[in-house]
């Protein structure tokens, strides 16, 4: 650690050297960096939730397609396979949906799609 240069003006006051003053970031600079990081974090969190919504919606569309195919399948193996894949997609969506912080409008859309998939799966199971 460097020694501070001591100069006596009106007593024994200690003044930092010029290069020491330049290397220590000011409180204002630290605050500015912190605010920029917080802002960036909020932006990333919002983008994550938007991507999560897109994934959930797409996966539910796929699950609905598979459940519809299963309901209309005449071959038991094909029906069973598509029903299992639809249930797997539904399980994945439910895991992520329960951890999400989506806005109410997007939550409603996902809940409506969940109901459609469940209904289609119950129809395919009955056939």
- Count of helical regions: 4
Helical content class: over 70%
Could you report the average pLDDT, rounded to the nearest whole number? 84
The ordered string of helix (H) and strand (E) elements is: HHHH
What features would you describe in this structure?
The protein has 4 helices and no strands. The chain has a domain at 76-127. With 127 residues, the protein is mostly helical. The chain is rod-shaped and about 90 Å long. The mean pLDDT is 84.
What are the main properties of this structure?
mainly alpha, 78% helix, 127 residues, rod-shaped
SSE layout and pairing:
Elements: H1 18-23, H2 27-72, H3 76-99, H4 104-126
Helix pairs in contact: 2-3, 2-4, 3-4
Brief overview, please?
The chain has helices at residues 18-23, 27-72, 76-99, 104-126. The protein is mostly helical and 127 residues long.
